[in-house]
Design goal:
This protein has 2 helices and 4 strands. By secondary structure, it is mainly alpha-helical. It has a two-stranded antiparallel sheet with strand order 1-4. Strands 2-3 form a two-stranded antiparallel sheet.
Length: 109
């Protein structure tokens, strides 16, 4: 019992542990803010990449060639509009990615 009373009244290291708890709390809050910013930036970059891929145009064409003793006809390929290329309407496919520009906080949409 005497040992328990001595440990209960002992305050050695109290200030150091309080400082460490305060510093650890500030570090955790900073990490949470930093990681959420990294998350937002990665999502923004992936949306940019998705937008770049969706705007690729695979169309090509060339005219026919003809010479003295032969020739080849021309050819053409037109990139057909995908289901995600069309404007979003009610009942549209849910797996399309919509790239929306971020708005300032407090500003109306």
């Amino acid at each position: 019992m005497k040992l328990f009373a001595q440990l209960w009244s002992d305050e050695t290291g109290f200030v150091i542990s309080s400082e460490l708890i305060l510093i650890a709390t500030l570090l955790v809050i900073g990490l949470i803010a930093g990681l959420s910013t990294i998350r937002d930036q990665v999502i923004g970059e992936l949306a940019d990449i998705a937008d770049a891929f969706s705007s690729i145009n695979n169309s090509y064409q060339f005219s026919g060639l003809s010479g003295h003793s032969g020739g080849t006809p021309g050819t053409q390929f037109v990139d057909i509009e995908d289901f995600c290329d069309a404007a979003a309407t009610a009942g549209a496919f849910a797996n399309c990615i919509d790239v929306v520009a971020p708005t300032a906080e407090g500003a109306g949409t």
